[in-house]
Recover the amino acids of this structure.
């Protein structure tokens, strides 16, 4: 049996007709740039996130960057985020000219460490960017409380967490604004790149709308230095057909996570921990073992693909050498980088594939104990 890490084609048969109709609609109307489908998808996705405004962007990275720019964050400012995240979180901060200030992650949820944030705040700090890593919401209540006390903006990186809930609320509306990515493998993925900013702040929404479209308020009236970072209309049309399926796809991810959990209980490894007030959406299902590399090779031999998210913490990346951070600075992030293993996870993953993966993992540890 072969088990891919993700299978993007698996969802296509169930939505083929709707997608083709949606694409055809755009081709017929010919409104390729900021067309009808962009405005509709912005409203529909904002409503899904229980927020008032949605502004589509070309990528999730742009969404984060434009929020920070709209908050007037730039050179001389510091923005706090996690050392264990995809590099785009830090890049978006760097693009503005601000300094990313990295902190370690919480050992249970792998999201931004709250004591770490408290220690990292300086007079230059302007914002905190919690990342809902692997689809598990960051500890938003204590982060928001800290931020309020110090006058900082909280910008959610929700690129892995479409539909997740914290204290019953959808992620995306918890801070000042949030960035989502529609990269194909995300929980809601386009057939190409895409992103979205959601917020309840009408002024911020207007500012990012201007920033993503050449700094233009009305046609050829440029009120500020802007960019071309629009969500493509074809991608918006495709995403509109997929959004109604998102809750069912997320439920399926949770069911698969439960099955992994059942089948792997008793094995000498760490399973994902879910905080009491969190409802995660399992963008990834990440286990942890000190025998990671051996296990990974063993699974690969049995046709099971796995992933590492992420093998090199941000502060140890060559690109971020200028930050001057050292090995040993973020012990949890560094230790986990050598122990984490992402198992196959996508909504259409079949029970028998989950069982096959779990069985292979059990075999690995059974062999290890006898040899
Ligand atoms: C995917 C991702 C991004 C960037 O999204 P793109 O659409 O690829 O630019 C940012 N942060 C996190 C945590 C992500 O997973």
């Amino acid at each position: 049996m072969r088990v891919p890490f993700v299978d993007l084609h698996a969802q296509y048969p169930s939505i083929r007709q709707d997608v083709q109709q949606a694409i055809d609609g755009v081709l017929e109307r010919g409104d390729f740039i900021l067309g009808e489908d962009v405005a509709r998808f912005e409203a529909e996705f904002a409503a899904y996130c229980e927020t008032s405004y949605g502004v589509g962007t070309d990528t999730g990275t742009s969404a984060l960057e434009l929020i920070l720019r709209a908050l007037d964050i730039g050179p001389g400012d510091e923005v706090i985020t996690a050392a264990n995240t995809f590099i785009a979180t830090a890049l978006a901060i760097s693009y503005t000219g601000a300094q990313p200030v990295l902190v370690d992650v919480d050992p249970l949820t792998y999201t931004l460490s709250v004591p770490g944030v408290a220690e990292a705040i300086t007079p230059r700090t302007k914002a905190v960017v919690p990342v809902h890593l692997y689809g598990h919401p960051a500890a938003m209540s204590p982060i928001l409380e800290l931020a309020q006390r110090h006058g900082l903006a909280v910008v959610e990186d929700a690129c892995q967490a479409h539909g997740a809930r914290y204290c019953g609320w959808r992620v995306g509306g918890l801070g000042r604004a949030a960035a989502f990515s529609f990269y194909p493998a995300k929980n809601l993925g386009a057939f190409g790149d895409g992103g979205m900013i959601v917020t309840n702040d009408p002024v911020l929404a207007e500012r990012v709308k201007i920033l993503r479209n050449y700094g233009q308020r009305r046609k050829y009236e440029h009120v500020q230095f802007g960019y071309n970072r629009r969500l493509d209309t074809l991608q918006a049309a495709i995403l509109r057909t997929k959004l109604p399926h998102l809750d069912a796809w997320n439920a399926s991810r949770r069911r698969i996570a439960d099955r992994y959990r059942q089948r792997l209980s008793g094995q000498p490894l760490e399973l994902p921990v879910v905080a009491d007030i969190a409802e995660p959406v399992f963008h990834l299902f990440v286990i942890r073992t000190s025998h990671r590399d051996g296990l990974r090779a063993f699974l690969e031999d049995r046709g099971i693909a796995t992933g590492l998210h992420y093998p090199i913490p941000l502060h140890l990346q060559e690109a971020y050498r200028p930050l001057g951070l050292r090995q040993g600075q973020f012990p949890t992030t560094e230790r986990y980088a050598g122990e984490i293993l992402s198992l196959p996870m996508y909504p259409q993953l079949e029970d028998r594939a989950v069982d096959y993966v779990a069985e292979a993992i059990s075999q690995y540890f059974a062999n290890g104990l006898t040899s």
Notes: Residues 107 and 332 are 6 Å apart (CA to CA). The mean pLDDT is 97.
